[in-house]
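Researcher: I'd like a structural prediction for the single chain below. Treat it as a standalone chain; there are no partners to consider.
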Amino acid sequence: MIAFYENRTTDYHGRHILPTGRSRIQCAAHLHTHIELVLFLEGHCSAFADTERYEIHGGDVFIAFPNQIHRYESYDKEHYFLFIINPDILPEIAHVFTNSQPLSAKIPDAANDPEIRELAARLFALDADDSPYVEVRRHGYLMALLGKLLSQMELTKTVPDDSHALKTIVNYCAKNYTSDLSLSLLENELHISRYYISHLFSDKLQIGFNDYVNSLRVSFACNYLRHSDKSVTEISDLVGFGTLRTFNRAFFKQMGRTPSEYRRMKQEARAAEKTSKGDLT
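Model: Treating it as a single chain, here is the predicted structure.
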């Protein structure tokens, strides 16, 4: 399984997806430095955390910890809350997410708790609230929600040195993905053994170092393909691939299509969405 690195540019993101909408939770395997929390209210999906598969039904909660590979498969219409949270905005409990892993990423029946549902609804409602101290209120709701959920989870400690080193390496790669990254370079720059770095990627992320770097570059390339008119060759250079051939090969391996096909697919999807909205007016 090749996972791609998702570059999160905000500290908090919340969505409320109704079963009447077109959105589905299905997505490819990915990882990021944030907490990903799904409160599943209706429907059914399969959720994956690292190598484990979970069947998620209405009332269940799924949580992926930072730098944990996760993905979803959809089967029918779904109703859920999705929250993606940078643990750094919750310093009181950030250590729990950086130094621990859940024995199970599924919390059965937790989303049926009226208090948990109310906290999720209040969090989502804040997105449309521009009143003073909204961030203070969001912090309070997040602390209450995660506090409730953590109390229902069994956690296992990760090795602190591993957790700190992995975060250092991931952050360095995210800031320098356009450079010619290699295990030797990271060893020299971060003073961490190249063998230890390789072990962390294979053991903690279940992905090789080179595949991880390529996934990071492809993730940024997708953003350029969606939101710019730059040529595929320009984008290949911008995200750090040495040759266009290498870029095309890595992109196809991760996305299942060429960069040009991906751009065309996104353009057609946007055009169809505009047409659909026009038909409704």
